[in-house]
Design goal:
By secondary structure, the protein is an alpha+beta fold. It folds into two domains: 69 residues, 2-Layer Sandwich (Double Stranded RNA Binding Domain), CATH 3.30.160.70; 42 residues, Arc Repressor Mutant, subunit A, CATH 1.10.10. 38% of the residues lie in helices and 14% in strands. It has a four-stranded mixed β-sheet with strand order 3-2-1-4, sandwiched between helices. α4 crosses α5.
């Protein structure tokens, strides 16, 4: 049986956010400026081409609820399971980003040092740019 992916959009103060959830967790969030759902479809075609598309799931609805709470200012930490798809280094960077407390910042160099790769600040920046779940992993 093929993997199942639920995808849909939620209205937010910055426009419609598109999200995709696998059975394991949230795997993609797309900002409005990325033009509707086309980048989401493209990403899914590269990372999960055989997946069956669903229009909703309990996790997708929970994702939308937590995003609404975030934009309402009542949520600072997300409790959603994540299904991060990337190479090992990218996943390590995204996990480090997820540990940054709300309202705090850390430089690319700071993340690189945390990962015991002090010369990898540019690679950390590239991994941040490839983050598939912005907002959930800041």
């Amino acid at each position: 049986m093929p993997e199942q992916i639920a995808m849909g959009a939620v209205d937010s103060p910055i426009g419609f956010l598109w999200a995709a959830c696998s059975e394991r967790g949230v795997c993609r969030v797309v900002f409005p400026r990325e033009a509707e759902h086309k980048p989401l479809e493209s990403w899914m075609g590269r990372h999960m081409p055989a997946a069956a598309r669903l229009t909703t799931s309990a996790l997708l609805e929970r994702t939308f609820t937590e995003l609404r709470e975030y934009f309402d200012g009542t949520r600072h930490d997300f409790t959603l399971p994540l299904d991060l798809r990337g190479n090992t280094f990218q996943r390590r960077v995204w996990e480090a980003l997820a540990r940054i407390p709300y309202g705090r910042t850390v430089s690319y160099g700071g993340i690189a040092r945390q990962l015991n790769a002090p010369q990898a600040a540019r690679a950390v920046g590239a991994a941040c740019g490839a983050n598939p779940v912005p907002i959930l992993v800041p």
